[in-house]
Inverse folding.
């Protein structure tokens, strides 16, 4: 096992693959909650008598607190370690999901539920990457991170196909009970297998220099390169989440699909996303140019957003919808590009800043998309989403020296 680990193995550790599985399951706690609403947004809108704008706010609520809490949770994580952080994260996620179970027809209470889930998501976000850095040598972290990121795409596929088939238009609680049970499952798994001996706090593992703080992370934004990546990541997430979150609703309202079929068609994005994350990451390594691969994907996202509302029903709309999955490769490419131009001493801080940019973009994604649909219609809303994609070039394609 020693060849997999970054420091001396501990007898009570299981095989490395088991801990990759644990990081995947950790991501899934938030991933399943994140993609629960989109497949049944039409039902929620009808039951609550709300429009697309209000539904967009409800979806975005999950990201609101994360804008302000990802970095503080990262600081806390380094002090208390993943075991305690896991209990905090999964406990908050369960609380948010459990609250929502009883208020699927109450907009205000479900909004509060989403806020709580988002707070837990901030805690979840810092656990997986820490365990990967802790347990795997640099040459094996790419594989571990690849599986970790793919988990999010997998959650989208699961929820887009499962949720519409276990709920009814007037009873959405089975979807909430599904996530409730998964949160409990993860609390038990964490208690059994992630101990302080297996994954100790940072100050017991590394001889650290400077400590990450909120102030230092914000100060990093003064670096023009970091600021560019912050803007680019926010723009990418804004257009990416907007398109993916509203596609099931668009397929139902405009294309006339039933909710189950709309979820199935939209989930093809996930299948393509899993393949794209591996293929395009490898391609960037092979041709020694993250910039070219990232630019090519972003160009296609712009084109596909417009084509989605133009092409006729049938295989063409399914193909265009599925092809948007190539965007799943972009986050890994964005961080890889940043690593080529940002000094190693600043990279940890820069990563936190970029992650915060992602949360900012994700928050505004559904909100702006919902407003655009209400005020300008579905076609112009998707075209507007394509326009925002232009700002995603900032950073990977504009930072001096980016490769």
């Amino acid at each position: 096992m020693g060849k997999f680990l970054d420091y001396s193995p501990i007898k009570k550790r299981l095989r490395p693959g088991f801990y990759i599985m644990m990081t995947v399951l950790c991501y899934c706690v938030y991933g399943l909650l994140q993609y629960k609403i989109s497949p049944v947004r039409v039902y929620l809108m009808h039951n609550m008598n709300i429009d697309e704008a209000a539904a967009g706010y409800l979806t975005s609520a999950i990201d609101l607190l994360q804008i302000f809490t990802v970095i503080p949770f990262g600081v806390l994580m380094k002090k208390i370690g993943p075991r305690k952080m896991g209990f905090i994260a999964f406990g908050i996620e369960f609380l948010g999901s459990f609250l929502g179970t009883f208020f699927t027809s109450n907009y205000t209470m479900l909004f509060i539920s989403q806020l709580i889930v988002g707070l837990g998501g901030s805690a979840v976000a810092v656990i997986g990457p820490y365990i990967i850095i802790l347990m795997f040598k640099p040459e094996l972290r790419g594989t571990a991170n690849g599986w970790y990121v793919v988990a999010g795409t997998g959650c989208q596929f699961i929820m887009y196909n499962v949720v519409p088939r276990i709920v009814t238009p007037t009873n959405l609680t089975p979807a909430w009970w599904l996530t409730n049970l998964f949160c409990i499952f993860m609390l038990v798994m964490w208690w059994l297998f992630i101990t302080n001996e297996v994954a100790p706090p940072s100050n017991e593992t590394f001889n650290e220099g400077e400590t990450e703080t909120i102030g230092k992370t914000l100060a990093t934004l003064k670096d023009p390169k970091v600021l560019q990546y912050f803007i680019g990541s926010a723009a990418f997430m804004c257009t990416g989440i907007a398109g993916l979150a509203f596609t099931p609703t668009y397929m139902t309202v405009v294309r006339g699909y039933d909710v189950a079929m709309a979820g199935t068609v939209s989930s093809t994005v996930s299948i393509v996303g899993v393949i794209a994350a591996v293929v395009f990451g490898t391609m960037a390594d092979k041709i020694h140019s993250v910039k070219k691969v990232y630019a090519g994907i972003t160009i296609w996202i712009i084109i596909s957003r417009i084509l989605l509302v133009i092409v006729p029903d049938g295989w063409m709309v399914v193909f265009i919808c599925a092809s948007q999955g190539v965007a799943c490769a972009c986050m890994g490419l964005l961080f890889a590009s940043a690593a080529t131009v940002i000094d190693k001493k600043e990279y940890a801080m820069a990563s936190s800043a970029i992650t915060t940019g992602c949360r900012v973009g994700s928050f505004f994604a559904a909100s702006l998309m919902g407003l655009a649909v209400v005020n300008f219609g579905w076609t112009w809303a998707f075209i507007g989403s394509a326009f925002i994609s232009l700002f995603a070039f900032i950073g990977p394609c504009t930072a001096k020296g980016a490769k």
